[in-house]
Design goal:
It is built from 5 helices and 11 strands, in the order αββαβββββββααβαβ. About 7% of the residues have low confidence. With 221 residues, the protein is α+β, with helices and mostly antiparallel strands. The longest helix has 12 residues. Helices cover 22% and strands 25% of the residues.
């Protein structure tokens, strides 16, 4: 079984920003643990359009959150299983094409609630192309100023003030920044994401009881 690893701007024209947000597609994700609404970024059109296509084709109906890691993320899209089966009953269900990377960094970074595309690791995927159907939602952890300072020094990077504030107050996974395509974010239902994050898992990070996407649908603008 192939395993996918996860390995600021000043708003000068709020009227135009609001108009842009009105044009962003929103998707309702109905799970057996509650509902999550995400919006898809227009700056990542390949991922946006592919996600919309899969939703419209009902490709995510009955798909499981097959990988859940506390203080990190919840991942779905790879596997299919009957409603009440446990991890051992999963069967592979992955699409055979990739989406070219659309990494819009530092505008979009791995704060809690970001919708991101999973992918294989760099040594077999140097272009960082995304899985067509696997995605994850960031949960992450909260960071202190000291931890962020240490990260900047070790990785020779400079976080923006927006990143620092978000990682301190909201949490996230900054070590993934600039490496994976972020193509949307949770706008409603973050408590459901947090509830899924806390389910019991086995040694392979598979939930012991099924966490299932019942259906997804495009919300009218």
């Amino acid at each position: 079984m192939k395993r996918l690893l996860l390995l600021s701007c000043i708003v000068l024209f709020p009227v135009f920003l609001s108009a842009e947000n009105d044009n962003e597609t929103k998707v309702l994700i109905v799970t057996n643990m509650g509902k999550i609404t995400v919006k898809l970024y227009n700056e990542t059109p390949l991922h946006r359009d592919n996600f919309i296509k899969l939703v419209q084709e009902n490709k995510y109906d009955s798909v499981m959150f097959h990988r859940v890691i506390k203080l990190f993320m919840i991942q779905a899209g790879e596997k299919y299983a009957p409603e009440d089966s446990v991890a051992a009953g999963f069967a592979d269900k992955d699409l055979d094409y990739k989406i070219p990377a659309e990494i819009v960094y530092p505008k979009y970074f791995h704060k809690k609630g970001q919708l991101c595309a999973a992918r294989t690791e760099d040594n077999v995927n140097p272009e960082r192309a995304s899985s067509a159907n696997q995605f994850y939602i960031v949960t992450g952890k909260h960071y202190t100023n000291h931890e962020l300072d240490k990260m900047e020094a070790e990785k020779n990077i400079k976080l923006t003030p927006e990143q620092r504030e978000a990682y301190k107050t909201e949490g996230g996974t900054p070590h993934l920044d600039g490496r994976y395509t972020i193509f949307g974010e949770v706008v409603k239902g973050i408590k459901v994401v947090s509830k899924i994050e806390l389910v019991s898992t086995d040694t392979n990070d598979h939930p012991l009881k099924s966490v299932r996407i019942k259906t997804m649908k495009i919300l009218k603008k």
